[in-house]
Automatic annotation (TrEMBL):
Organism for this UniProt entry: Parazoarcus communis
SUPFAM superfamilies: Periplasmic binding protein-like I
Family to which this protein belongs: Belongs to the leucine-binding protein family.
Protein name: Branched chain amino acid ABC transporter substrate-binding protein
Segment forming the signal sequence: 1-20
Gene3D superfamilies noted in UniProt: 3.40.50.2300
Keyword line: Amino-acid transport, Signal, Transport
Gene Ontology terms: biological process: amino acid transport
Span of domain Leucine-binding protein: 25-366
Length: 371
């Protein structure tokens, strides 16, 4: 009887020891999970979640311990104040890195919280140049910025679209206004005249007043800096007003949801840009699309491949440094070159992606088609 008890005790110690060798590592994911662009936010979170699940399936060992990564999803509601609140919550929860936020307007103020907490953050979708111009050493993005995107949009409108008169609308967010500003610079440099510059909000649904003013200027092209939740209804109202100008928007409207919201009003004179390659032209795009659909039962919206690559780059840097501590793996993150779904993931000295591509799309046959 005593021998049995001793044996059980020894077995118990062995089980405890085995469990002690597994280390849970928390990673944060922040995006708007409620509200008008929650479809984009959930897309981001699912991209990061798939990367975490893939890492766990590999049985990664760091510092001599098997690691189980755990993703903590937070909803910032696309609101800057909420963004800083949830950022602090993640720092307090002891996360070792953060994938997010989605919007530039939430990412920029939240980045200060992460910097103060010593937590690396990689945004898969915040494109405002200011994000990586603040001098924070642990802030990165896996997507091209608005200087690159705005330049491409301005040149496209003046060149292939032949626009001489351009009207610009933005939603007054860090993203929408920032992209509109860069697009305006490039359009002016190309010789176009900006005949109107109007603004709305990222919560608005009625644009008739500003669109009526724009109609009077008879523009060749209308550019909108903002998200699909406003872009879709805006296109509907433009059609109702009989405006025939071409419509161009950035990556915030380059989504399946934009097509759904605009309905028949979208027409063949609608264009958008994406800070990246088309999904089918990404090195791992086709496989990612199929796996994503199988796992989550929904199609890729826009940014999930970039969120996947952000989480993967972070985890790879931990492996390279053989540590999950930010102070130790940050150097590896800065110098790593990781083959990702979207392409080669490597950052410059500011934290911007080195090989950021821009692709232009036209609406054709029910979809956004790369030009």
């Amino acid at each position: 009887m005593k021998k049995t008890i001793v044996a059980l005790a020894v077995m118990g110690l062995g089980i405890t020891g085995a469990h002690a060798q597994e280390m849970v590592v928390k990673l944060g994911s922040v995006a708007p999970l409620t509200g008008t662009i929650s479809h984009l936010g959930k897309d981001n979170e699912n991209g990061a979640r798939l990367a975490v699940e893939d890492a766990n399936a590999k049985g990664i060992t760091i510092g001599g311990k098997k690691v189980k990564f755990e993703l903590i999803g937070e909803d910032d509601q696309a609101d800057p104040r909420t963004g800083t609140t949830v950022a602090q919550r993640l720092v307090d929860a002891g996360v070792k890195g953060v994938v997010g936020h989605l919007n530039s307007g939430t990412t920029i103020p939240a980045s200060r919280i992460y910097d103060q907490g010593g937590i690396p953050m990689i945004s898969p979708s915040a494109t405002n140049p200011k994000l990586t111009q603040q001098g924070y050493k642990g802030i990165f993005r896996t997507i091209a910025n608005d200087v690159q995107q705005g330049s491409a949009l301005g040149k496209f409108m003046v060149g292939p679209l032949g626009a001489k008169k351009i009207a610009i609308i933005d939603d007054r967010t860090a993203y929408g206004q920032g992209l509109a500003d860069e697009t305006e610079k490039a359009a002016k440099a190309g010789g176009a005249q900006i005949v109107a510059r109007e603004f709305t909000t990222d919560k608005a649904t009625d644009f008739n007043a500003i669109l009526t003013k724009i109609r009077a200027t008879n523009p060749d092209v209308i550019f909108f800096g903002g998200m699909d939740a406003q872009g879709g209804p805006m296109l509907r109202q433009l059609k109702q007003l009989g405006v025939t100008a071409k419509f161009v928007t950035g990556d915030g409207g380059c989504s399946p949801e934009m097509i759904k919201l605009a309905g028949e009003a979208i027409g063949s004179s609608a264009y958008c840009s994406m800070a990246g390659l088309p999904l089918d032209k990404m090195p791992g795009g086709a496989e990612f699309r199929d796996r994503f659909k199988k796992r989550f039962g929904t199609d890729v919206q826009i940014y999930s491949p970039y969120a996947y690559d952000a989480a993967t780059a972070m985890i790879t840097a931990m492996q390279k440094a053989d540590s999950v501590e930010p102070s130790k793996y940050l150097a590896a993150l800065k110098t790593s070159a990781v083959p990702g779904v979207t392409g080669n993931v490597a950052f410059d000295e500011k934290g911007d992606i080195k090989e950021g591509a821009i692709t232009l799309y036209q609406f054709k046959d029910g979809n956004w088609v790369a030009m």
